[in-house]
Every structure is written in C-alpha cells, then in structure tokens.
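Q: Joint fold for the lines below.
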Amino acid sequence: QKEVEQDPGPLSVPEGAIVSLNCTYSNSAFQYFMWYRQYSRKGPELLMYTYSSGNKEDGRFTAQVDKSSKYISLFIRDSQPSDSATYLCAMSARTGFKTIFGAGTRLFVKA
Amino acid sequence: DVKVTQSSRYLVKRTGEKVFLECVQDMDHENMFWYRQDPGLGLRLIYFSYDVKMKEKGDIPEGYSVSREKKERFSLILESASTNQTSMYLCASSPSSGSSYNEQFFGPGTRLTVL
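A: Joint structure:
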C-alpha cells in the first residue's frame, strides 16, 4: 500500500464548477500537508499549506485536513480554465523531514 | 524571483551512455533533491543533499549517483542509461529545517528519453 493515495483522474468540469480533490494517507505521523499545482511542461509550485487538522482558505482555494480519517481535500470554487493543471498532494512528518507526494490529479476546466 | 534551473528541457540518449543532469538554484538553500515523475506513480525521490558534499539515498537510488560540490549546484548522474530510466526528472531545493514548513521549489524538469 502506498503511503499517499491520490486518484490520477483526469477530472473534467465546466467553468464555474466547484472542484474537490482528495488524498488519503496511511502514516499517522504526518503533520504538514501541502498542495502543489503543476502546469504542463512546468515544475510543481506550492499552492496551499496546512499544519495538522483544520481548514485553510486562500481566495477561491480551501484546504481541509481530517487527521482522524487520514484524509485531505482541496476545494476550488468558481473554477477557471486557468486552473487546468495537475494537483499533487504532499505531506511530511515534521519540518525538514522527507516529503511524500501523491501521484497527482489532472484537472481540466472547460470554458 | 527565486529560481531553480535545469540544464536541459529535453534529452535523448542511447542505452549504456553516461548521462549528466545539472541543477542550479539561486536561493542559497541548503537542501536539494532529485525526483523522477512517471504517470500514475507521482514524484519519487532519487537522492537528496542537505549540505555541500553530503548526500542521502531516496526511495529509488539504484542506477543513479549524485554530486554536490557547491551549495548552489546538484548533479544527477546516470552511470549507464537504460530504457527504464526514460522519465521526467525534477530538481528541487528548500531551505534548512529551521523553516516553518517544507516548501520545495522546483525546476522546470528534464524529459529524458533513453533509446
């Protein structure tokens, strides 16, 4: 079993839709949870970061962590064609420790 | 603007060739990483380095070696390229463990094809 599981998609939605991206994990020691966005032919860039459980909001993006269920989510409101990218979840046990990445979910937002 | 650069965007090599992938960062970061990215498998860590001349094996080091002679430069070496090393290679850097979280800054990637 992989430490981090993420559905690779692809996920195709119309412009304006609410998008939900999810990851599950098995290592209860993970405390730092991140979402990276990767555009085609580019390297990943950090989009959101959350420490431990709870929600974090940044504009149209909301990151949620449920440590009891070992489940994290990224919600995108009012999705735009420019949100079309691959979204990778990532997590680590503590600062400076190894980061484990999910396989990434490809998202297409159609105009 | 912070930057991680990789020496080539696309590379085609023959089986058995020795291949060098170069990565340079301008952020004075202590940590540097090499990953390969394959469909359905995500990012897999090959090697990382937390200081000059220091290196640690990641999850899939077989067939690879690394060199870090200067803080800003981290090289990945394929000693004898094989077709199963055809992949996207991503370099990343991050500040030391004193930072509040583990943000890694990635280069644009090198797509390597081994024929």
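Q: Anything notable?
A: Chain B has a mean pLDDT of 92. The radius of gyration of chain B is 13 Å.
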